[in-house]
């Protein structure tokens, strides 16, 4: 066990805002977001890289923030669920989850929405197989997958409209 | 869950990482994609005093095609291989990359990390053993190239010596009349497979000229089934040779019973996977396009 652990200075852009932080190396990215930046929309579910409740976008790619150290996000752009809305307007994926009843307890929802955002950023017209594959790393225990699929289909449609 | 406290080192080059590794000794671990190491550290199964982060080293993630060899940088993410047009020309690579865990894990996990971990349930070693694959390793003294079967020594054990790391994975591109398939049977996307089968066939008309058949999750290392290979070589792919290959795969498998199933169940499963993978590999060797994904329980 090492004696004194030196903290590491990092800079990260979270939801468009620059932050300079000093973190212990073992601080997980999800803890930095929740504890240091007070962005508690990113949830900790299983804490073992299974459930995807902690999913955020790292430079546009969905990652499990419980399985990354904050120091690894140095220089990165991170998007959490709080960063989806713009100027008080819900992101189409957020609106679609509401309109399609794509959630019940809502614990898994931020993570699923960010997985869906990555999918729709790369594929504007995903079929059901592609949607299922995109959210295979997100677990919902209220058994809401059918309406989650509906919500992502709806968001894709809304986002395609000019 | 917090891992035990550790010192963090950010390597600027692979040479520097190798130097740090030899200086810091056994207490140091390399951090590549972290998708196995970080969970192990959180559960305190791994407690390194020093982590050497490879993720900030430039030019360690690439897929290059040169003189019939596909060269992949050690930190090439599974998702980069999944979405690579060059890698798509070797269907077994796409099968493997696109079936590992889930999108989030594939965005972080690396091919070099997967091979260096040598998890008996890992995907890459199984798929790549059906091809001629070399692992390029680096230490302070220089580079050496090790064939993949020599590289994987035992469960979680490789031929990497103290202060040595994986730099690149070099795969010989199979011949035009060759086709392969990698099938994983899983209970859900984020979990390790219950069993996997990798098959690469080279066909000469109706005859199987060459076969490579490797099983995963049913032994401490990937299991090469030479008896299944010889059941196909010089024969047509028909019910008789398929049954012989299936039987040989079941006999070669040495699975451990666990929460994913009994030994007998896994033996039966891996036989069925081999049969299915042979059929797909044969079609692909003939130039047919066949889509393959993980098979869910």
Written account of the structure:
The complex is a heterodimer of chains A (about 160) and B (about 300). Chain A has about 160 residues and is α+β, with helices and mostly antiparallel strands. Chain A has a five-stranded mixed β-sheet with strand order 2-1-5-3-4, with helices on both faces. Chain A is built from five helices and five strands, in the order E-E-H-E-E-E-H-H-H-H. In chain A, strand 1 (about 10-15) and strand 2 form a beta hairpin. Chain A folds into two domains: about 10-85, Beta-grasp domain (Ubiquitin-like (UB roll), Roll), CATH 3.10.20; about 90-160, DNA polymerase, domain 1 (Orthogonal Bundle), CATH 1.10.150.120. In chain B, the strands form four sheets. In chain B, strands 4-5-10-6-7 form a five-stranded antiparallel β-sheet. In chain B, strands 14-13-12-11-15 form a five-stranded mixed β-sheet. Chain B has three domains: about 5-50, Uridine Diphospho-n-acetylenolpyruvylglucosamine Reductase, domain 2 (2-Layer Sandwich), CATH 3.30.43; about 65-170, Uridine Diphospho-n-acetylenolpyruvylglucosamine Reductase, domain 3 (2-Layer Sandwich), CATH 3.30.465.10; about 180-290, CO dehydrogenase flavoprotein, C-terminal domain (Enolase-like, domain 1), CATH 3.30.390. In chain B, helix 10 (about 225-230) packs antiparallel against helix 11 (about 240-250) and helix 11 (about 240-250) packs across helix 12 (about 265-285). Chain B has helices at about 15-25, 35-40, 80, 85-90, 90-100, 105-110, 110-115, 125-130, 150, 225-230, 240-250, 265-285; strands spanning about 5-10, 30, 50-55, 65, 70-75, 135-140, 140-145, 150-155, 155-160, 165-170, 180-185, 195-205, 205-215, 225, 295. Chain B is of the alpha+beta class and about 300 residues long. The interface of A and B includes residues 25, 26, 74, 137 and 138 of A.
